[in-house]
Fold this protein.
Amino acid sequence: MTGSGSEYWLQREKEWITARNRKTDKLSEDLENAFLRVSDDLQKEIAAWVEKYADAEGITLADARKRLSAGELQHLKMNLEEFTKLAKDNADGRWEKELTSASASVHVTRLQALELQMKNIVRKLYAGQESAMSDFLTGLYADEREHMTYEIQRAKGKFDSLAALPEDRVQKILQRPWADDGQAFSERLWGTQNKLINVMQSELLRGIISGKDTGSIGKSVAKRMGAASYASVRLIQTETTRLIVESDKDTFEEMGIEQVEIIGTLDRNTCDSCGSLDGRVMKRTEAKAGSTAPPFHPNCRCIIVPYDDFLSGDGQRTARDPENGKTVAIPDISYKDWKAVYVDKTKTLEEWKKAHTKKPESPPTVEKPAFVPAKTIEEAQEYAEQFIDKDGGSFSPFKGVANYKGISLDMANSVNEALTDVFSTLNIPKLRGIKVVSSKTVQGKKAFPDGENAVASYNMAGQGVFLNKDVLKNAKAFDGYRKRADEAWDLVMKNIDSLNASGKALAEKYKEAGRSLVAGDTVQGLVTHELGHHVQWQVLKAKEFNELTARRGQYAGKISGYATASSGEYIAESFAAYMKGERSILDPDFVKAMDKLLKKPRQNAIIKETGALNDKNDPEMERRDAHAERYYEFIRKSNKENWISRVSKNSGMRKASVEKIYEHVFIDKHKLLMGYMRFPADYAMAESFQRLFEGNTVYHHDLIMLRHERLELELIRRYGYSFSEAHEITERKYNYSKALKEWEKNRNAES
């Protein structure tokens, strides 16, 4: 049923249903408390009645109970005036009839008076509960109608006003029987009341005649009250579901929804007996409460939802202005704001638009180094090596080098310009090499499986880029590639109507986008596309990749024809468009994911993820960063054994532990937000390591740092935690940042 939208409604309704159930449960709790209070009052009345009789007769309570049980009840009288004082609080008018009847004789028994008083208390209770229930259900119907109308309009992508609710609509529903017993809401409630009164009178008389003490009689009455309380709670829970179903049916009719679907698993814990009904689809007119639609049993919390093909997801939305009737395009609107504009009319659509219209977001600016073209192919290769992980690529097909042999200097510079643009903009792992191969060789055919016209390709296993020698050997060869691409485009577009169904559908997507590739006319653009695959494989986790490609159908056609080919090409083409600044045509979530990789927020990312303390607001930041980089490099080039020995001696930590810390901080690479890399050099940590090495003055926070790194790497190596998980856990025990700040605070106070 997911195609019809059941998953959509499960997601949309869960929060609303939870809030609604919370309101129902609160009313149920209020009803139960009311029963408890009345139960206490009744027990007090019974005790007071016996006590009053004993006082009047001048005998003990025990003697009073004996006399009462001996049949003396008929002799115990009180005058009508006294009785009237007890009956002054009248709830619903029924009391007068019984009072008039009782006044036919001059006196009534004290027991009769007690019974009438109990009746009055119970009737007052139920009168209050009927009023509370009726008000609650009326409000519930209206709220559900508004909410469901909003959700349907939202799914359709078109907002409009809500017609006024007929005043007597809810009362008509409540007055209509729906269960097999043929009783309406009020009849069901007052039937429960009459039953309670009868059983309470029986319990009272039985208890007195049998000589039970007042405590025992009170407990018997309390038990009956508890059963009645449960019946009232069950009634309101069941009627809630009925009113919701009736409200939704009315709304569906207003909105032109012809089919409905039963959902019995919204909160995963309700309506186990209705499991077989979950997912059942029927005509709206066939949905009858109590038979084909909820409630199916007492306390049922199943719901019905629209079953239709109108769900639009996140497409463009329109709204009809209630003031002028014009339809305008708007961003998505919340339920709260929709209600204010279209139901309560507390604000106009124009006011809402003004408050929620965002200025076009400017892309973040990142300072890029000026690209200076190389003068020789050797110089171009040397330049490219700054973007290559030499160590990591030693065992890959690329050998950790840039090999431009066989392509022209202009083509090599275009490749380097793409590398400069991407790597100076984003914090991503370096490539493991760049290699030129001929598409006509065995290796070339493996490198370019799509054919000889490929300009470049990314190798997932080797984590590097292949360049096609036959296309990039000179400008003339590349112009030939572009000419062939243009001819292919023109040929397809001219003959689009003669293609088979699948071919035509694909061609239409290319036509919609207006281009085959985002930057198919430049070497720089094509290489950027391949670097998009590098980001795909080396940066995006599987979950993030799946999330970003879930809406490919919605955005790919706007980007390029090639973006529609597969999820991988969609990501690569989105990346190429992002680097060109075409943010408006991209999935906003993709833009956010790339923005997180920008060089500019690098320091914030480091601080958040690693606890490093370099402060971007520090005017000395650049100097401090440079110092930290130099000192980290100094440690790497120093005699390792000597460094470990001295830090171990000055800290009191075992050499084996210090060696592990050395590898963890200065040598090992980690999966960070910025990519797979060594820890960035941190000034505060560099200072701590320097003190630990020299041994003149070692502070408490320096030792905290060592213990932090030791525990962190242990969690990673021994227990398999990710770096971020291990760091978070370690921070709870050894918080270097906190310890450093306390030290700085104390130092400043002393000075």
Remarks:
- The first helix runs from residue 6 to 57.
- The CA atoms of residues 150 and 338 lie 7 Å apart.
- Confidence is low (pLDDT under 50) at residues 69-83, 99-108, 601-609, 613-619.
- DSSP finds 29 helices and 14 strands in the chain.
